[in-house]
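Subject: Protein entry, chain in single-letter code together with its fold tokens

Category: Structural biology, sequence-to-fold work with a learned token vocabulary.

Notation: Tokens come from a learned vocabulary of local backbone shapes, not from coordinates.

Start of record: The labelled sequence and token lines come straight after this line.
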Amino acid sequence: MMRASPSNIKPPLREVSNEKRIEVARNIAFHLLEKYEDAVLAVYISGSTAKKLDRPYSDLEMMCVVRDGLEVPNKYCVCDGLLVEVDYPQESGFLKAARGPGWDWPIQADQYRNHIVLFDRDGWMRKLAEAVADNDRTDFTEAIRFAAIAMTESLGAVRNADFKKDLLDLRTRAFYMAWDTARVNRIDRGRGKAMARDDGHGPRAGSHHRVRRDYRVMP
């Protein structure tokens, strides 16, 4: 029996171009429409591929929005060396999440805003655009404050790990603190951009700095 070595192990992933990812996505969309038919409201590419920021080994992220009542587990697979993720959100929950400042909004916001549309039933994507516009007019003060408190809690955990001289725990706590800090940073930056784009309905540019001071204060 041949023993495994770096020279004879073939990685499951291969280099894939942006154009090839889009081609694979179109084929997947075709099969989704064949399988779920009228239950499909929209299919689009999200993530780095949609923004043309994908790299040779990036994954392909897709959203297949379905009618309420159809529950389809999210799919993850490697397709000919390309990692593919397809999410199947139900319409009402998806639009609600797009409107509100939920806990994971800094991580999920991109999937509502950047996309390559592959299928759009009866102009459904306009509903998503309206939900995003509502989100841009939302007051995120409480969301920022909550994220900042979580970041502070993580800082305490980092200091406790350092106090114990537990290097493994310190690295773990530092990872989670970086994650919580990214949440604060991305909410803050995202709201600043929205305010700078003031369309007459939301806070004006400059009020962003007032929010920055507020989130450091307990209610």
Q: What stands out?
A: The chain has eight helices and five strands. The longest strand covers residues 40-46. Residues 1-9, 191-219 have pLDDT under 50 and may be disordered. The two ends are 67 Å apart (CA to CA).
